[in-house]
Amino acid sequence: FFKKEINRTQAGSVNPFDYKFHFQQKRNSIVFSGRFTNQKQVLLYANSIDQIYKDLTLQNISIEFYIIGNGPLRTIVNKKVSSLRKKGVIIHTGFMKDYKQIIENSKLFLSIQKYNNYPSNSLMEAMACGNIPITIDNGSTKLLAKEDYSYYLPENFSPKQLSECISGIFQLSKQDFEKRATLARETIKTEYNVNLAAKYYSNLYNSL
Question: What is the Cα gyration radius of the chain?
Answer without folding.
Answer: 18
